């Protein structure tokens, strides 16, 4: 059996039965490497060589965690929570529904902006979401719906809007790899090819919010978070001004330098320089920041090792070759097989940005041989790369929402983030990606 299939399926099964994601990926990588005949030493070498690729990501998340803790210590999030709590307490049923819709809309807009307008990726989640948990609990909003909203904004934005991270995915990665493998297509046509798959994501979001999780969900009363949200802030006006300056400075530093590490550092330093967070507390700020984001960081590091082993097995190419032999000239079957293989690969690697260079080399010649148009080929490869990003245990599109929603320990990463986003986004993506290949 193909080693890639073995590794990914084993990883998913272990994660679903609540084995720690890091352990699941490590064990699955070992099994995949051994089943491909690499041997224990070569498998470990491949795994270890991939770990270094996740070090910068892990440090970035740790620094952003420190920034989030600094914002929390400053009281900025508590001011926000107090204002929203007063609105909730004074609302009747009709106003409560409006407030729920407003909060969900704000979260969605922030998620979209984090990819395209102000490209900070998931950095906003541990800052925005934790102070809202008490409000979400009072409104009985299902956090699985919030996870789907966040993941939709994080994933759909880069799939179809060619700005920020979307420009990187659509132009620098997808178009470049299409052209490098012999497909002549104008770069501005690539976002157009992704519109139909993006509609699939929108359909999935509508089902999640309006059908699957419409009734709401009750969560345990968290007295500690309510006390914290209700605490008195000595100088709220100063906190608001300095907090706003710190956030803007952090965003500017990240956008200018392209480094999340520097962005997080600048934000923390701004709070310290102006006395909102005392210098003697800086060590505690970074310690708590590392603790907050450590799991995400280690999962991302492990994902890099897992991906390295998958590449080292050489079975990605053989998997695609087997599909090519099976489908022949059957376009509908070819589209379905390409999307399913893309789903399998991305679920294991956890990043659409890393998946496209792998699959484009194999799928573009296959699409051209079968007779797909340029637009259909772009839609297939782009969708195959994005598939799985929403529902992978190792994807920051699921890890990010979990980092904010599980602050009080009531949101499970696999069953409340991964499974809901897989069902509501990957399944529609498969369907609408196939439709795009047929009609374009």
Task: Give a summary of the structure in a few sentences.
The chain is an all-alpha fold and 440 residues long.
The general outline is: globular
How would a textbook summarize the main sheet?
none
If you average the pLDDT, what whole number results?
79
Number of helices: 22
Alpha carbon gyration radius = 22 Å
Uncertain stretches of 5 or more adjacent residues = none
Q: How would you spell out the order of helices and strands?
A: HHHHHHHHHHHHHHHHHHHHHH
Share of helical residues: over 70%
Proportion of residues in extended strands: under 5%
> How many beta strands in the DSSP annotation?
0
- Structural class comes to mainly alpha
Distance between the termini: 34 Å
Structural summary, described in words:
By secondary structure, the chain is mainly α. Helices cover 77% and strands 0% of the residues. The chain has 22 helices and no strands. The protein has helices at residues 3-16, 21-35, 40-51, 55-74, 76-89, 93-113, 125-128, 133-138, 143-160, 165-180, 189-193, 195-212, 223-229, 236-257, 260-273, 282-313, 315-327, 331-349, 352-370, 374-386, 396-405, 413-439. It starts with a helix and ends with a helix.
Labels describing this entry:
mainly alpha, single chain, 0% strand, 440 residues
Topology:
Elements: H1 3-16, H2 21-35, H3 40-51, H4 55-74, H5 76-89, H6 93-113, H7 125-128, H8 133-138, H9 143-160, H10 165-180, H11 189-193, H12 195-212, H13 223-229, H14 236-257, H15 260-273, H16 282-313, H17 315-327, H18 331-349, H19 352-370, H20 374-386, H21 396-405, H22 413-439
């Amino acid at each position: 059996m193909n080693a890639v299939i073995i590794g990914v399926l084993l990883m998913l099964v272990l994660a679903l039965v609540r084995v720690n994601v890091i352990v699941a990926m490590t064990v699955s990588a070992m099994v995949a490497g051994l089943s491909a005949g690499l041997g224990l030493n070569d498998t470990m070498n491949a795994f270890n060589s991939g770990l270094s690729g996740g070090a910068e990501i892990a440090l970035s998340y740790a620094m952003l965690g420190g920034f989030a803790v600094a914002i929390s210590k400053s009281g900025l999030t508590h001011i926000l929570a107090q204002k929203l709590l007063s609105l909730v307490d004074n609302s009747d049923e009709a106003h409560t529904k409006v407030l729920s819709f407003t909060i969900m809309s704000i979260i969605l807009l922030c998620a979209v902006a984090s990819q395209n307008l102000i490209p900070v990726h998931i950095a906003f989640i541990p800052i925005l979401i934790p102070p809202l948990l008490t409000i979400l609990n009072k409104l009985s909003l299902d956090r699985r719906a919030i996870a789907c909203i966040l993941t939709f904004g994080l994933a759909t934005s880069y799939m179809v809007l060619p700005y920020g991270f979307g420009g990187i995915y659509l132009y620098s990665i997808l178009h470049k790899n299409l052209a490098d493998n012999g497909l002549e297509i104008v770069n501005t046509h690539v976002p157009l090819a992704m519109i139909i798959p993006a509609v699939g994501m929108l359909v999935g979001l509508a089902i999640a919010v309006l059908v699957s999780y419409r009734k709401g969900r009750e969560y345990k009363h968290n007295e500690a978070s309510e006390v914290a949200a209700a605490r008195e802030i000595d100088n709220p006006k100063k906190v608001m001004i300095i907090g706003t300056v710190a956030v803007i400075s952090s965003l500017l530093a990240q956008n200018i330098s392209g480094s999340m590490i520097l962005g997080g550092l600048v934000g923390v330093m701004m709070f310290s320089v102006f006395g909102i967070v005392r210098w003697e507390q800086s060590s505690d700020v970074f310690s708590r920041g590392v603790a907050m984001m450590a799991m995400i960081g280690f999962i991302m590091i492990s994902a890099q090792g897992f991906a390295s082993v998958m590449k080292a097995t050489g079975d990605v190419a053989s998997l695609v070759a087997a599909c090519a032999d099976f489908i022949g000239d059957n376009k509908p079957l070819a589209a379905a097989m390409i999307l399913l293989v893309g789903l399998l690969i991305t679920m294991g690697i956890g990043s659409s940005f890393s998946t496209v260079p792998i699959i484009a080399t194999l799928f573009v010649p296959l699409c051209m041989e079968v007779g797909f148009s340029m637009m259909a080929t772009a839609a297939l490869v782009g969708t195959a790369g994005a598939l799985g990003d929403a529902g992978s245990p190792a994807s920051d599109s699921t890890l990010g929402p979990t980092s904010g929603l599980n602050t009080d320990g009531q949101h499970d990463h696999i069953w409340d983030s991964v499974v809901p986003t897989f069902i509501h986004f990957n399944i529609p993506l498969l369907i609408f990606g196939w439709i795009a290949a047929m009609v374009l």
